Amino acid sequence: MSDFQLMPIGERGMQLWLPTPRDSTMGLLQQQQIWRLAEQCRDDPDFAEVVPGMNNLTLLLAEANPAFDWQRKIGECRRRSQKHKHGARHHKIPICYDGPDLGFIAQYHRLSDKEVIRLHSQGRYNVYFLGFLPGFAYLGGLPEALATPRRENPRLQVPAGSVGIGGQQTGIYPCSAPGGWQLLGHTSVPLLDSEHCLLQPGDSLEFVISETGA
């Protein structure tokens, strides 16, 4: 198991960092380690907030305590996490591949539109973390052949449900917002409401081709 590097954040916070993974397989193993540890920390009354990120985990104490023994507490949570499997769900998300940037993605990689659709829909993805927007899931597992730079000029408004590619990741916009990802399709599945986010760190998903995205 990789060792975390600890970085204090103010009087109540600590950020735990893992080394940059050498490949996607190691990256997924490290994220799984973070997800399991996050579950155990959430059950600990000493922590008010637990936020998993990419190669990192942020912890915020319920109360400021200059004498808090971070090493001991994190060690306890890590030992518990080794005994548990992360409780993840699998989602099948319908997608209509009608995005305005589908042609650009195909041209960038010298592929046909159909080849882009085939590669993207055959991928198996994992929710690495949530960020940028409430409920926006950064998905690992994008085929290397589809990794595409973000747009030079971001759109002022991207419709909710848009599915895009940004660098080596793919994702779904849970709500309408500005964004610079290359859009290749959309889904009608609601990802966010007033009570919860459909996708959570550690979940897996696949895209199912649909004529309507529903």
TrEMBL record:
Coiled-coil annotated residue ranges, if any: none
EC number: 3.5.2.9
Keyword Cell membrane: no
Top-level taxon of origin: Bacteria
Enzymatic class: hydrolase
Keyword Nucleotide-binding: yes
One Pfam family this sequence matches: CT_C_D
GO MF annotation: an example: 5-oxoprolinase (ATP-hydrolyzing) activity
SMART domains referenced in this protein's UniProt entry, alphabetically: AHS1 (SM00796)
Entry's transmembrane regions: none
PANTHER family (UniProt xref): 5-OXOPROLINASE SUBUNIT B (PTHR34698:SF2)
This protein's name: 5-oxoprolinase subunit PxpB
